Structure formats: structure tokens, C-alpha cells
Amino acid sequence: MSGRSTTWTASIIPARQARADRRRTGGTAASASGNWSRARQTLKQYGVSTFAPSRCRRAGNRDISCREAAVRIGALRERYPEEARVALTPESAVQLRKLGHNCLIEAGAGSRSGISDDAYRSVGVEVVPDARALIAASDVVVKVRSPEGDEAKSLNDGQTLISFLWPAQNPDLLETFRDKNITAVAMDMVPRISRAQKMDALSSMANIAGYRAIIEAGNQFGRFFTGQVTAAGKVQPAKVLVVGAGVAGLAAIGTAVSLGAIVHAFDVRPEVAEQIESMGANFVFLEFEANQDGAATGGYAAPSSPEFREKQLAKFRALAPEIDIVITTALIPGRPAPKLWLEDMVAMMKPGSVIVDLAAERGGNCDLTVPDQRIVSPNGVVIIGYTDFPSRMAAQASILYSTNIRHMLADLTPNKDGVINHNMEDDVIRGATVTKGGEITYPPPPPRIQAIAPAKPKEKVREPTAEEMRAAEAAAFRKQTTSQVGLLVIGALLLALIGSYVPSEFMAHIVVFALACFIGFSVIWNVSHSLHTPLMAVTNAISGIVVIGALLQIGSGNWLVVILAALSVLVATINIVGGFMVTRRMLAMFQRS
């Protein structure tokens, strides 16, 4: 072991003792301040830097000198060969320090994500030489994948671990955590509710996987996604089928549509049909008489009935010969991935077609999928079973995952004073916690709020018969005719009354005015609302005529005529100015910004 590593191992002994004393006394900084002072002295003796005064902050009404009460959060380097992500980025470390925490990271943890150790040091993160020293010096350990091999056994009693854990598939791991009194927070168990979206790491990674799946498929497909008409002939657009419209499926749909492909999508949850169609894809409906709703509690899909599955597979067989790219994303929590794209469907596909199975890590949705491999079927269909799609975009995936971790720690530090408050009454924290206090707390109680509100059944409106429709039309015509005749009679009586008192010249003008009002009202009333804006622009010319007439009347010697003419000029001018402003905004909509 190097000299620096020896220094770290020796230096964490008093620090560990101070944290143990703090836990015994209820976690207060004052009760453990003496131990932390001795710990800092020992750290200095071994040549390890202590926290600078510039990092100190206030918590409530007291000062925390040199952050003695802060929780130390350590990020481990991933041991899995194909894993390039890291659980802590410099940007997230800055935000965690604002919560009162100290951050540590194992040397080289961010190298495969393009983050150097110096980038961490520049924001005040302590770079620790190896995993053993980091675990010994940390209160909270964060990582991406669940601990493998001896990683779980190397954790200290009473520590907190935050990572993907997959508790349903790893019961032995939960027993290890229970025996070591480890508080384990599974990022894959965050409830699918609105308040928890900011820490939903599964959705973050699924979003990347769906995007990357289309990119990988395009690389293997070898042809255009969008249709084109060229001098050499017409190019048909690619036809893409996405099975499963969760986060990964919707990301794949959006990417494929943006590239110009014709996209079809299927999901057992009927409420996502509107989401699929709003993105420009076609929802694949099944003709199934029974009311089949595949939505399970928490926004995940539930197993389908055998009858529904038969209809589903029959529909896929009908689509297989014309589909160029298939993206499968279907998963059921706690179960192997359902087999949806069978071997006979692969045989029906055209040579050169591509299948990307995003469920390969859980067994795959395609019969021929081989995890972590790209294979070619006997009829020339490429089947991709990679399980590391997020890791293939490690830089972006690390940013999103570390942000999810940061939000989880923010919920665990409600007072922003560097003290973890693991509130099991909180729905999100309770749902993600799988072991605590020497007990296994998995499975959690079901979420109180559904991720997607079930679609309300639409009431069927009875179609009227032909006789009822004719009777309704006759009644409407009679009502309209009666109202029109009544208005004409009232108008004629008013004109006769006015004509008995005013000169004949005035009557000619008033008749023209009344006809203009009637015709104008009838025309404008029937104009569509979408045409009101251009109609207002056209009225500028009419308003100009009004202004000219009013200006001619201003020269009259009658003061009443002058006032009315001035008001006419004012009102018409307002209409003209508004019309030109609306016209300008209309034209700006057709200009490049």
C-alpha cells in the first residue's frame, strides 16, 4: 500500500470513533466536538488535509467550526467492467456542500465519464486513493450498481448506502445489509409519484436508453429513417415499432419521429394512447372485447391475461413483415421480462431489419436476445441485446444520476444543516428504503397516489333516429324563423316611428346604416375565431374611411357635431393602430428568428 493510502487508513480511525460517539449521543455536533477535535489533530499528524475554514457555515443559530457536524458522502468507483458511470459529479458535489455535507470520491471514479480527479478537487471534493479508505471515512456511500462480491461485506456497521439495489432479485444482499445494520436506499425503488420525479433514477436512465436504442438501431439499419425524393428515385421511410410506452419507449418514439420514421407503438395501458399520438406516432389498438387495463400501481405495467396475450401476439405477427426496426422495452417489476417478440416473428421480418431489446438484462422481450451481445438471425435480422445503453452515454448518464442522488440527499437533509434525517413517514424515503435499523423494510407499502390517473370511461351517447333528427331540424328552423320575423317587425315599427318625425334625407341615411349594421353583423358572426386576427388587420381600410369622414365634420360650426367627430377620429385611430400592430405580429410569425 502506498504511503498516502496508509495515511488515509490511519487517519480515519479517530474520525470513525467521533462519528460513533455522535450516533450514540443522538447525532448532535456539540456532544462529539471533542472527539472531532482530536480527529482533526490526528489527521494533521498523518499529513491529511483538514477542511479549510472557508468551507464552514452556520446551522441555525450556531457555527459549525470546520464542518464537524457534516455528514461525509463518499462515491465509489464502479467495479463492473462495462460500467462507465459515476454516482457523483462536480456539479452535484457543489450542491451537496451547500446542504452542509462533505464529499469524497475514490481516485479515478469519474475517468470513464470524462471527469478527472482534478475536476473534483477544484470544487472541494476529497479524492481518496482506494475503496477501503473511502468506505472507512464515509458516513454515506453512493454508487451506481449494487455492491458486488465483497463490496457489501466491506461496508461498515451503521453506514448508509444509496445505489441501484434491485431488492426483489437480490434477497441475499438485503440479509447482508440487515446483519450489518446498514441503511440501504434503492434508487430503483423510488415511487412513481409526481413529488419523486426529481430523484427517479430509473426514468433518467430509461430516457437515455430509449434515445440510445434508436441511435444504435440507426447505426445497424444502414438506411434512411426519413423518406426522401431524390434524382435517383424515391426512398421509403423506415417503419419503427416500439413495444412498451414507458419512459424508455416514449424517448425512443420521440427520437424516431424526429428522425422522420413512421412510428407505431403499443402498450397494455390504454391511458398512454393519447401520449403516443401527441408525439406523432400511431398507437396500435387491439380488438379485445374484455376491459383489459394493464396499468399496475405505481405507473408500471401489470401482467396481461392469456386471452389478451394471444390477441397481442397475433397483432405483432401481422405487423412483423412490414416493420424495419423493433424496440422492445416491456418490463414487469419483480419478474423476468415478458416474451413478446417470438422466434417466428423474427423469421417474418425482412433481412436487414433490426431489433433492439432494452429488457435484455431481465431476460429480454425477444426469444433470440443474447444479453450483452449483437447477433444476426438466420434470415439476416440484427438483434441487439446490450445491457449498458446508459453507460454508453456515460457523461450524460452520470450527470442525470448524480442529480437524482443529490435530490435524494436533499430530502434526507431537510434542514440543510449537514445532518441526515431518515424520515420513514415520508412516502418517497419509505418507498426507497429497503433495510434500516437491522430490519428488512422491503417491500414497501403501495404508493398512495397513482402515477397516471386511470382514464375515465366515456359515456356512450345514444345516436338519434332519422325521425328524431328531422323533428329536431324542423324545431330549430321554426325557432330561428320566429326570432327573425320578430326582429324584422320590431325594426319596421321603429323605422316608421322615426320616419314620422325626421326629414326624408335622414331616413335614407338611417336605412343604409341599419342595413350595413345587419349585414356586417351577419358576416362577422359567421367568421371562424381563427380568422378574427387577419380580419382585424383588413378593417384598417374601413377605419381610415371613418377617420376621413370625421375630419370633414370637425369643420362644422355645431359644437355637438365637432365633439362627435373628434370621438370618431379617436376610436377609429385606436382601431387602426391596433390593426397595424396585429398585422406586424402576424407577419413576424412567418419570419425566421
TrEMBL record:
<keyword id="KW-0547">Nucleotide-binding</keyword>
<feature type="transmembrane region" description="Helical">
    <location>
        <begin position="535"/>
        <end position="554"/>
    </location>
</feature>
<keyword id="KW-1133">Transmembrane helix</keyword>
<feature type="transmembrane region" description="Helical">
    <location>
        <begin position="560"/>
        <end position="582"/>
    </location>
</feature>
<dbReference type="InterPro" id="IPR036291">
    <property type="entry name" value="NAD(P)-bd_dom_sf"/>
</dbReference>
<keyword id="KW-0521">NADP</keyword>
<keyword id="KW-1003">Cell membrane</keyword>
<feature type="transmembrane region" description="Helical">
    <location>
        <begin position="240"/>
        <end position="266"/>
    </location>
</feature>
<feature type="compositionally biased region" description="Polar residues">
    <location>
        <begin position="1"/>
        <end position="10"/>
    </location>
</feature>
<feature type="region of interest" description="Disordered">
    <location>
        <begin position="1"/>
        <end position="36"/>
    </location>
</feature>
<dbReference type="InterPro" id="IPR007698">
    <property type="entry name" value="AlaDH/PNT_NAD(H)-bd"/>
</dbReference>
<feature type="domain" description="Alanine dehydrogenase/pyridine nucleotide transhydrogenase N-terminal">
    <location>
        <begin position="74"/>
        <end position="209"/>
    </location>
</feature>
<keyword id="KW-0472">Membrane</keyword>
<dbReference type="InterPro" id="IPR007886">
    <property type="entry name" value="AlaDH/PNT_N"/>
</dbReference>
<dbReference type="InterPro" id="IPR024605">
    <property type="entry name" value="NADP_transhyd_a_C"/>
</dbReference>
<keyword id="KW-0812">Transmembrane</keyword>
<dbReference type="Pfam" id="PF12769">
    <property type="entry name" value="PNTB_4TM"/>
</dbReference>
<dbReference type="Pfam" id="PF05222">
    <property type="entry name" value="AlaDh_PNT_N"/>
</dbReference>
<dbReference type="GO" id="GO:0005886">
    <property type="term" value="C:plasma membrane"/>
</dbReference>
<comment type="function">
    <text>The transhydrogenation between NADH and NADP is coupled to respiration and ATP hydrolysis and functions as a proton pump across the membrane.</text>
</comment>
<protein>
    <recommendedName>
        <fullName>NAD(P) transhydrogenase subunit alpha</fullName>
        <ecNumber>7.1.1.1</ecNumber>
    </recommendedName>
</protein>
<comment type="similarity">
    <text>Belongs to the AlaDH/PNT family.</text>
</comment>
<keyword id="KW-0520">NAD</keyword>
<keyword id="KW-1278">Translocase</keyword>
<keyword id="KW-0997">Cell inner membrane</keyword>
<dbReference type="Pfam" id="PF01262">
    <property type="entry name" value="AlaDh_PNT_C"/>
</dbReference>
<dbReference type="GO" id="GO:0006740">
    <property type="term" value="P:NADPH regeneration"/>
</dbReference>
<dbReference type="InterPro" id="IPR026255">
    <property type="entry name" value="NADP_transhyd_a"/>
</dbReference>
<feature type="domain" description="Alanine dehydrogenase/pyridine nucleotide transhydrogenase NAD(H)-binding">
    <location>
        <begin position="218"/>
        <end position="385"/>
    </location>
</feature>
<dbReference type="GO" id="GO:0008750">
    <property type="term" value="F:proton-translocating NAD(P)+ transhydrogenase activity"/>
</dbReference>
<feature type="transmembrane region" description="Helical">
    <location>
        <begin position="508"/>
        <end position="528"/>
    </location>
</feature>
<dbReference type="InterPro" id="IPR008143">
    <property type="entry name" value="Ala_DH/PNT_CS2"/>
</dbReference>
<feature type="transmembrane region" description="Helical">
    <location>
        <begin position="485"/>
        <end position="502"/>
    </location>
</feature>
<dbReference type="GO" id="GO:0050661">
    <property type="term" value="F:NADP binding"/>
</dbReference>
<dbReference type="GO" id="GO:0016491">
    <property type="term" value="F:oxidoreductase activity"/>
</dbReference>
